[in-house]
Amino acid sequence: LPAHGGANAAEVQVGKPAPGFTFTDIEGTQAKLSDFRGKYVVIEWFNHGCPFVGKHYKSDKMQNLQRTYTEAGVVWIAVNSTNDGNDNYRDAAMSVKEAEANGTSATYIVLDPSGKIGKLYGAKTTPHIFIVDPEGNVIYMGAADSINSTDTGDISKATNYIDLALSEALAGKPVTTPETKSYGCSVKY
């Protein structure tokens, strides 16, 4: 795959600029990552067919984080890089219904069936989380939380890395856990 904008997945690193990308969300809104300079941005890889993603959505943990932080001015981009030949693929219309049914509160829900955005970031699992600071640098990358399971009962026992990183960053503190190993289902490129 040719390098996009001089960056490739191996180069995504905490403290370095997040790879730029453009998108059209499931509502038809077009934007690019650089439009959000000056704000924190969460990029969440998801696939509702994955039980690891299900843990975070069935418990309402992910939606609560989305609501809490978007109300605080964070831009939340949920990306589904499932290819259109996979059983878990959803088109925009199905994705709108799914988002409504799940109470998703992401700012944008983006379908990436070509895998262009996912491969740019090296997104390996659903969920896989990247957080970008107002200067455009990655300040967190990895798992949603500290317990590798599909059990909603583990949510309350786990350290939620999204919550931890954003609460620290928004308070002007360094992120104490800037990188973890993501876990979940493989992204269906």
How far do the termini sit from each other? 13 Å
Spatial order of the strands forming the largest sheet: 5-4-3-7-8
Helix fraction? 10-25%
Number of helices: 5
Give me the Rg, rounded. 15 Å
Average pLDDT works out at 94
Classify the oligomer: single chain
Number of strands: 9
Approximate shape? globular
Proportion of beta-strand residues:
15-25%
Largest sheet: 5 strands, mixed
**Element order: H for helix, E for strand:** EEEHHEHEHEEEHE
Specify the structural class.
Answer: alpha/beta
Low-confidence stretches: 1-9
Structure commentary:
By secondary structure, this protein is an alpha/beta fold. It has five helices and nine strands, in the order E-E-E-H-H-E-H-E-H-E-E-E-H-E. The strands form three sheets. It has a five-stranded mixed sheet, with helices on one face. Strand 1 and strand 2 form a beta hairpin. The longest helix has 11 residues, at about 60-70. It is globular, with a radius of gyration of 15 Å. The two termini are about 15 Å apart. Residues about 1-10 have low confidence and may be disordered.
Key terms:
189 residues; alpha/beta; five-stranded mixed β-sheet; two-stranded antiparallel ribbon; 24% helix; disordered N terminus
Task: Report a brief summary of the structure.
The chain is of the alpha/beta class and 189 residues long. Helix content is 24%, strand content 19%.
Secondary-structure blueprint:
Elements (H helix, E strand, L loop, with lengths): L21 E3 L5 E3 L8 E5 L5 H8 L2 H11 L3 E6 L11 H11 L5 E4 L4 H6 L3 E2 L1 E5 L5 E5 L18 H10 L14 E2 L3
Parallel strand pairs: 3-4, 4-5
Antiparallel strand pairs: 1-2, 3-7, 6-9, 7-8
